[in-house]
Amino acid sequence: MMGMRKELLLLLSLYLLSPLAHAQPKDTYLQRAKETFHLVWDKYRVPEHGLFAEYYPNSYKPDLTYFQESGHKAQEVSYLWPMSGVFSSVNVLMELDRKTYKPYLDSMVVAVEGYLDKTRTPYGYQAYPSKFQTVDRYYDDNGLVGIDYIDAYMLTEDASYLTKAKEVMTFIESGWTDDFGGGVSWLEGVRDQKPACSNGKATVLALKIYQATGEEEYLQYAKKSYDWMMEALRDDSLNIIWNALLIPDGTITGRKDVEVQKHAYTYNTGTMIQSAVRFYKITGEKGYLDDARALAEGSCQYYFGYTDGNIPYVKDIPWFTLVLFRGYQELYEIDQDPKYIDAVIERADWAWMHARDKEGLPYADWTGQKEENKQPKWLLDTSCMAELYARIALIKAQAE
After folding, report:
1. In sequence order, which residues have a C-beta less than 8 Å from that of residue 162 and are 6 or more positions away?
2. Do the Cβ atoms of 146 and 165 come closer than 8 Å?
């Protein structure tokens, strides 16, 4: 009996010393990211156009509310904003598994180019594919495309992607006006507001191009855009970014009776955290890092909480929260304080366990308290989760 016990102990000790015992399990977050991404590709893709449906199932054609004017319904393929979420998720997955996702990146470049409008100058990306009709061009949509292209350039060193990112920047700069202190509007040719979404994305894009090229003009644009955002739209007591500067008569220069639209969306604060961190990396000026830290703390206090049943929630839609997470991620790389990324990760974990339908598609409400199992699912709500889990996987991999 004693001899058998010694033999078992010897076997156990050999096992504990073996590489097998110390092998790490597959990255759970990477598995989640890949699973969610391939649901996007399988459920939403419209193969005959090489594009994506706005909703799954594609037969669902609701009114859409994210345009300047009402009356827009979901169409045969998605509008640019939701489609860009797929592009962004591919870029992050490329960082984790280049061999697998490079063909998907190539496909997404073909897809996004379908939205390019060359009938108006400077060239820009319109809200719906140009082969179907000519429609409006939004500066915030173009900021998303530019960011996707500069990120793709940094991954691949494909010079054509850098060129496209710069072309987007040219289009956005064409919308800058000095009235009301500066900034660009939301929709080309309409000057009734100067929103955080257009200007925050333009700031991030300009900084990324500068960091890729060292070309001073992009840093100068980023600086004036950042300063305008922090002056016009930052709430100094709450440390969040409000939604827009509303202009009662967008045709009159110099009016003073403008109004700050006090809707607080997570992504607007997120882009400014990203911008502040990148300015700190470029300049070494601590004031920028102080801005990033203040906005991170303010947004964490403002947006995150728990229900009476102790379910974690965030007061915004999934994609907006993802953009806030981008800012938290970049700040974490400097401070190594996990407080803010953990706030999002906790909610993403809950969503994975409690807020997906029988096919695995995520709910819009991460708490899972609303019955969404049989409801159609928006492309952006799904694609952003692929990016979010991939970003968490990157953080975990870097920590290891």
Report:
1. 149, 150, 153, 209, 212, 213
2. yes
Q: DSSP assignment of 156-200, as one string?
A: H--HHHHHHHHHHHHHHHTTB--GGGS-B-SBTT--SEEEHHHHH
Please say whether the beta carbons of 185 and 193 come within 8 A.
yes
Residue the block writes with tokens 């991170």: 296
Question: What mean pLDDT value characterizes the chain?
Answer: 92
Range from 9-13, 145-149, 173-177, 384-388 carrying the lowest mean pLDDT: 9-13
Q: Is 240 helix (H, G, I), strand (E, B) or coil?
A: strand
Q: Give the separation between CA 385 and CA 38, rounded to whole angstroms.
A: 12
Half-sphere exposure of 212 (CA within 13 A, CB side): 24
Q: What is the pLDDT of residues 80-111, one digit of tens each?
A: 999 999 999 999 999 999 999 999 999 999 99
Burial bucket for residue 26 (CB in 10 Å: 0-12, 13-18, 19+) = exposed
Comparing CA positions, the residue from 110, 123, 100 lying closest to residue 45 is: 110
First to last CA, the chain: 42
Contact 243, 268 (CB under 8 A): yes
Q: Tell how far CA 182 is from the center of its chain.
A: 24
pLDDT in tens, 160-173: 999 999 999 999 99
- The token duo for 8 is 């078992």
| Residue recorded with tokens 């980023």 | 222
